[in-house]
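Backbone-to-sequence.
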């Protein structure tokens, strides 16, 4: 009987890693006319008009962001000044989505990376910690951690102290039957992870090693996740996003041809230990 060799990649999403061709990775591809006619992005900011390149006063602000906003010429500013003011407002508005917790600082850090990073990938160790805690603390029936734990306990060849190569599909099936870790829980709406990651683009799960001793085992499993810090058309056309200045500013900074700030890939990784013992049915 052939034993499964490690490291062994159990699962990869159809969406590939390092995918810069995704729709939410586009930038600088829309005109003022397109933003206004198709996306209804006439009124973007309470501080500036990015189309007229003018600073707003309180008298310039309409009762509704969806109505015409030009009530007079404001103070002219440069495109660079306008972008800086939009990013400052972007950061200020982000605070309502990251009220508390150890990850509440991340969204402002990621906005600044969009402003200055020129599309380079982003990584922060606190995100790795958040992912590790999410995986280990998930005790729902859809937990990939618990499903892998069960599959290992049942399918290990205890007599030969190995995992059979022909049983690798059962480990993949265990992952497919669960829910990949995402930051879409209720608490993620306020702790900073929902606004920075929320859903994910690509996931890869690898068993790095498996040690079997008597009737117990210890598997080291690595989760690699990527997300895109960018918005696509489907995002901004949804009322739940379009109604907020936060997302309107984000979309314009990214997609308006006069700005074109690059979105980027967020890299998150976590290594967890899965331990268990010989399934009682097999004893």
């Amino acid at each position: 009987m052939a034993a499964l060799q490690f490291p062994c990649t159990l699962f990869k999403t159809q969406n590939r890693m390092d995918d810069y061709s995704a729709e939410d990775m586009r930038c600088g591809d829309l005109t003022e006319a397109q933003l206004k006619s198709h996306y209804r992005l006439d009124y973007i900011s309470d501080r500036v008009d990015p189309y007229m390149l003018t600073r707003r006063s309180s008298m310039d602000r309409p009762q509704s962001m969806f109505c015409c906003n030009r009530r007079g010429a404001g103070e002219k500013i440069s495109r660079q000044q306008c972008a800086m003011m939009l990013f400052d407002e972007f950061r200020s508005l982000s605070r309502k989505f990251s009220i508390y917790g150890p990850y509440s600082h991340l969204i402002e850090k990621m906005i600044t990376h969009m402003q200055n990073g020129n599309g380079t990938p982003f990584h922060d160790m606190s995100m790795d910690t958040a992912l590790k805690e999410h995986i280990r603390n998930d005790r729902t029936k859809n937990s990939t951690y618990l499903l892998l734990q069960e599959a290992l306990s049942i399918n290990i060849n205890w007599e030969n102290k190995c995992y059979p190569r022909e049983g690798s599909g059962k480990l993949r099936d265990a992952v497919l039957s669960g829910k990949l870790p995402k930051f879409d829980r209720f608490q993620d709406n306020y702790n900073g992870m929902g606004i920075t990651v929320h859903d994910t683009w690509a996931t890869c799960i690898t068993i790095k090693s498996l040690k079997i001793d008597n009737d117990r085992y210890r598997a080291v499993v690595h989760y690699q996740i990527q997300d895109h810090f960018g918005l696509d058309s489907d995002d901004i056309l949804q009322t739940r996003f379009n109604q907020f200045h936060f997302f309107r500013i984000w979309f314009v900074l990214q997609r308006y041809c006069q700005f074109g700030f690059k979105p980027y890939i967020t890299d998150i990784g976590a290594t967890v230990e899965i331990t268990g013992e010989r399934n009682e049915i097999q004893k």
